[in-house]
Design brief:
The protein is α/β, with parallel strands linked by helices. It has 13 helices and twelve strands. Helix 2 crosses helix 10, helix 5 runs parallel beside helix 6 and helix 7 packs across helix 8.
Length: 366
């Protein structure tokens, strides 16, 4: 029902946006400073970190490929990774402006800290597409997943795993970094499902999303609550789930309680196959990356993006940002074959190394 409502609303918004005419059409954004003619455009791509496998393995190559496809191979992608440092990322924006890119795709390390740099780019006539995280400042377009829905999917999966024992003990909530606006949405979505249905013994906002910080937090939670009292763990992503599971094993917790995740990282998928992690959230990166590339190429050329977007989103500083939001999938051992393997994210033999061969056979992966 919710998806149907979103689809109707998205259609209505698209019609409304198209009807707005000259008042504020995406096609009337200023062209980038020194904008190249035709397809010979230069796109700056700034990604936030390289600890999460997705950015280097999926996002970057997917965006590069789509830009090449859209520009007949003439478009150039200039790439930089901030390695989880907001100051570095701001400097990278300055460099992109100096190098006169035609448009920027920015996945912000810190959504607030990037706002000044977004304004600098805008003042230089360079449109900015916020990627995956809704950056603050005068951004021109945004693409991500329905991030509150991600949290709801995780919460529902945890409740499913706990069944009628949902209140027999306590759960630990391991949220993401407070500098990531998506983390707030994941957290909100999860709470909307879990509150009142489970007992939340401990809850953490994990600094920089680091697995080692999640590991430390989990060890502290087990010490405070008692290892026999923890019946489940809400983990906002797969990297942290790995740190959490290591802490559970180190404390001698057996059997392991259900642990959630997100991003369908290879290690996370293998843990799901092995029964150590209950689920992850599979986010199809291709449509997200392709949407970013389409919007970036159009904006670089001064073209409209009305036919690309599916809804408008408000940031704390900018209302009605033209956006593309992509649906997500709950990934468990029952649908690995029909999701990440079918979509070509991983081959079965990548998942089913010698260590996981027997477990793979059990879930029908060969």
């Amino acid at each position: 029902m919710r998806r149907a409502a979103v689809a109707v609303a998205a259609g209505a918004m698209a019609v409304s946006l198209a009807a707005c005419g000259s008042a504020k059409e995406a096609g009337e954004k200023p062209k980038a400073s020194g904008s190249a003619a035709g397809d010979a455009i230069k796109i700056g791509l700034l990604l936030p970190e390289n600890q999460t496998a997705r950015y280097e393995k999926f996002d970057k190559p997917l965006i590069e490929k789509k830009v090449a496809d859209l520009t007949g191979g003439k478009g150039q992608v200039v790439y930089a990774n901030a390695k989880q440092d907001a100051t570095t990322q701001n400097s990278q924006v300055d460099t992109m402006i100096t190098n006169k890119v035609n448009v920027l795709i920015v996945d912000a390390v810190d959504s607030k800290a990037i706002a000044g740099s977004v304004k600098k780019a805008k003042d230089a006539g360079i449109p900015v597409v916020a990627y995956d995280r809704l950056a603050e400042g005068p951004i021109d377009a945004y693409t991500s997943f329905d991030n509150e829905e991600v949290g709801k999917v995780q919460g529902k999966a945890l409740l499913e795993a706990l069944g009628d024992k949902a209140k027999d003990g306590q759960i630990v909530m391991m949220n993401g970094s407070v500098t990531d606006p998506n983390a707030k949405l994941f957290k909100s979505g999860a709470h909307s499902v879990l509150d009142g249905k489970v007992n939340i013994g401990k809850e953490y906002d994990t600094v920089e999303w680091k697995p080692e910080n999640a590991n430390t937090n989990m060890a502290a939670a087990l010490s405070a609550l008692g290892k026999d009292k923890v019946i489940g763990v809400y983990s906002a992503n797969d990297g942290m789930a790995g740190g959490i599971i290591t802490a559970l094993k180190a404390a001698g917790v057996s059997p392991l309680p259900p642990v959630t995740g997100q991003d369908a990282e290879l290690a996370g998928v293998q843990r799901i196959v092995a029964g150590e992690q209950f689920m992850s959230v599979y986010k199809p990166y291709a449509p997200e990356a392709e949407a970013a590339a389409k919007m970036a190429v159009a904006l670089a050329k001064g073209e409209k993006i009305d036919d690309i977007i599916n809804q408008n989103v408000d940031s704390p500083t900018t209302k009605g940002v033209p956006s593309v939001l992509i649906p997500v999938v709950s990934l468990t051992k029952n649908n690995i074959k029909d999701t990440v393997v079918k979509d070509g994210v991983y081959k079965a033999d990548e998942i089913c190394t010698d260590k996981y061969a027997a477990a793979c056979a059990t879930v029908g992966l060969k």
